[in-house]
Structures are given as C-alpha cells and as structure tokens.
Design brief:
This protein is mainly beta. The protein has three helices and 18 strands. The strands form four sheets. It has a five-stranded antiparallel beta sheet with strand order 5-4-7-2-9, covered by helices on one side. The chain is elongated. GO terms for molecular function: calcium-dependent cysteine-type endopeptidase activity.
Length: about 325
C-alpha cells in the first residue's frame, strides 16, 4: 500500500488488469479506485522499491509529540527530553525529518542523518539508533524509572538544510515526555555512553583509552583519561573518504586533563555518498603534571564538551 493513499502500480496485476482470474480477483479484493492499495509481481518490486515499512499499530497505546531543532555539534546543543515511565513500558521512539514547510517530500528531499539515544538515570545507554533516512524508530522495553532522550542529527550540515524535526513517542503504559535542558557536557557524556555500549576499546596505557562506535556510515571517537596526568591525544583522519567532521577538521590535537573524558569528533557520511571509508591513527602522550593541567584543543571546541569527571579511579 502507498501510505499517501494515491498513485498505483500500472503493470501486471494492477487494479484493472484484464488477465485477473475472477475468483482470485474477488478473493484479493482488487479495487479500481485510486486509493493507494495495489498488487504487483514480486519479481518487479525490487526495481521500484528499495525498502518496505510495516506500520505497527498498537491499540490503546499512549502518545506524546515534541518539536526539535537539528544542531551543529561545533556550535549548538542537541535537543534533549526527559521521559518518565512510572510503570515501565514497551516504547516506540521515532524521529521524523520535518522537511520543507514541516512536510517531508520523498521526491524532493534527500534522506537525513538521524540518531536517537535513550539514557537511564545513571547515564547508561539503554538503547541507540542511527540511520540515514527520513525517519528512524527505536524500539525498546524499559522498567519503571526516569530516562533521557537525545534526538537529532550527527551531520554537521543537516541543521542548515533541515532545521527542524518531530519526535514521537508511543508507549504501552502511561508516560510523560518533557523538554529537558541540554548542554555540551550532556551530549559528550551521551556519546561516551554509546561508545561504552559499543564495547570497542583500545587501551593506550597509563589509564588512557580510546573508544569508538561505528554504524551506518558514522564514526565516533571518545577518549577516556583515568590517569592523574594530562594526556595529549593526536588524531589523524586524513585517509577517510566521503565523510564530514564535527570538528570541521581531519587532524586534531587535544590535551585532556586528568580524570576527564572527551568526545573527540563524530564523522558522518556526505550527503548522497555511499562509498564511505574511515581511516584514522591516534596516539597519546602523558604530560608533565606541573606544566600541563588545562584543556587545549586544536581545532577549538567548547570547554563544556568535556564529559564528567571520573570518580574513584584508583
């Protein structure tokens, strides 16, 4: 079925196909109305459709909707929403690209880089979804508690082309969604939680580690410094292909204070690019604590982009 309710397949087995067996036509209830409902041969379907979406209808579920703004990781803050589930719930959380004039036109508007992060009250990444599409859905089940939703785009250009998105939450039990103050630090901690969940960790020695997450054409790099000394991390992504950097650079040098973490950068695929390659080198150096205690970043990032302090590291 065409969800827009109009325009139909005109080839074999279309509504007015003259070769319909009468009994089969009656059984399949083929209609000549332009209602968006039609049959077509399976063999020809892949030539016209790249994906199939099944609309999940849950009777008596609860719904909440919020409006959000895409952000530029280097200058603005990702939208955040508090979620209270006093009874626990099965949840369907969706982000829709609002498109041109709050209406997405699949014929005119390209797909958009979208993400959803669901954090528990203790900062654990309960669920994560990222894809390049006009909408994404995160399906999960949560116990009673308070949660945090971060929604938006990892692409540094989406906020200029498509400034707005719609967040929709459906739940099997009553819940409340409300606007939540966001910050660079919160965003850094959220993506650190995503990296911890991905469980791709490289120990660089001396209490310093780098963590990465990589899916559907995006790549994130986080540094954990659990030592009592400042570390200088040098990152080189110049061998990467068809990606954009949240730091607007492919070579970065960051000094990360003791017992702090930093979201180094997020790389997303360029619009209309499918051949994406990530190639990087990273090296760390522990610095003299008497001379290096403050953060220093090249290129510059907001100081709030540093994540939480690691407590009880030793």
């Amino acid at each position: 079925r065409n969800p827009w309710g109009e325009k139909e397949w005109k080839g074999a087995v279309h509504d007015n196909w003259t070769k319909w067996p009468k009994a089969l036509r009656n059984k399949l209830t083929a209609s000549s109305a332009n209602d968006g409902v039609f049959w077509m041969p399976w063999e020809q379907m892949p030539s016209f459709f790249s994906s199939v979406t099944i609309c999940k209808v849950n009777a008596n579920w609860h719904e909440a909707r919020k409006r959000g703004q895409f952000s530029d990781f280097s200058s603005t803050i990702t939208s955040a929403y508090g979620l209270e589930c006093p009874y626990g719930a099965e949840l369907e959380i969706e982000v829709f690209n609002a498109g041109d004039g709050n209406y997405y036109n699949r014929l005119k508007d390209p797909d958009v880089d979208l993400f959803l992060i669901l954090l528990s009250s203790n900062g654990y990444c309960r669920a994560y979804k990222h894809d390049v599409d006009y909408y994404i859905t995160l399906s999960t089940v949560v116990p009673p508690g308070r949660y945090l939703i971060l929604a938006g785009s990892m692409s540094v250009v989406n906020y200029m082309v498509y400034p707005a998105f719609n967040l929709v939450v459906h739940g099997s039990q009553p819940f409340v969604v409300h606007d939540q103050p966001s910050s660079y630090e919160l965003v850094a901690d959220a993506f650190h939680a995503v990296a911890v969940r991905a469980n791709n960790r490289q120990d660089m020695g001396g209490g310093v580690s780098i963590l990465t997450f990589d899916d559907n054409g995006n790549f994130g790099l986080v540094c954990e410094n659990k030592s009592n000394r400042t570390v200088r991390l040098s990152s080189n992504f110049q061998g990467s292909k068809n990606v954009l950097s949240s730091r607007h650079a492919f070579q970065m040098v960051d000094t990360i204070p003791a017992r702090k973490q930093q979201l180094i950068a997020i790389f997303t695929r360029k619009m209309f690019s499918n051949d994406v390659q990530i190639a990087y080198q990273a090296s760390g150096e522990l610095l003299d604590p008497d001379h290096y205690t403050r953060a220093k970043n090249n290129p510059h990032i907001p100081p709030q982009a540093y994540g939480k302090i690691f407590e009880n590291c030793f």
